[in-house]
Design brief:
The chain has one domain: Sandwich (Jelly Rolls). Helix content is 9%, strand content 52%. It contains one helix and 16 strands. The longest helix is centred in the first third of the chain and has 18 residues.
């Protein structure tokens, strides 16, 4: 009689993989303070502005979804990505992304402030380190994002932007009141 140890392990391995993905997501990083008096920040528009927020992950797991306070024109083409960072800045290495239509973020007729969930179809496996959520709109129409307050309410990361006519590359997010972070939440399914 032959032993079938390899075949006996297969169902156990499949069950373990299913269990890992069934682990409920937990809040891993957040900065939820809003600067409602400061107005909305453009995402897209004539400056083709892009926004990003870097954040710290302290354990291994799958980034299941992120939440950001934004409102979009129903016909906007939105891309939300999870990227690796170099020196705390998004470096263009995309680990997960979703391309969505603006109606999913539309709160008209009255723009309501609230976090909008973006769930990754293919969650990225991450380890401890710094990553970034990047927000882009392709073409027109555009979106708006509520910024966080001035200062450094989330010291483990930074807000970033790219906008014309600035040179290419990410610049730390600032305005007349100083530097600032975006409002965000990142959820992780721990291993």
């Amino acid at each position: 009689m032959r032993k079938r140890t390899g075949m006996a392990l297969l169902p156990a391995m499949l069950l373990a993989g299913t269990t890992a993905m069934a682990t409920p997501p937990e809040l891993e990083a957040e900065q939820v303070n809003l600067d409602l008096a400061g107005g909305w920040m453009a995402l897209g528009s004539s400056a083709q502005q892009q926004l990003a927020q870097s954040f710290e992950v302290t354990r291994a797991g799958y980034v299941s979804h992120v939440m950001v306070p934004m409102n979009c024109h129903p016909k906007a083409d939105v891309r939300v990505a999870l990227e690796k960072t170099t020196g705390g800045m998004p470096d263009g290495t995309v680990m997960a992304y979703e391309e969505l239509t603006g109606y999913l973020f539309d709160a008209l007729p009255t723009p309501a402030v609230g976090m909008r969930m973006i769930e990754f179809t293919k969650p990225a496996l991450v380890g401890p380190g710094t990553y970034a959520v990047t927000l882009r709109v392709k073409g027109k129409p555009d979106c708006v994002v509520v910024p966080g307050p001035h200062g450094d309410p989330y010291p483990a990361g930074k807000g970033w932007f790219i906008a014309l006519p600035n040179p290419p590359g990410w610049i730390e997010l600032f305005d007349a009141g100083g530097t600032r972070d975006l409002a965000f939440q990142v959820f992780l399914r721990p291993l």
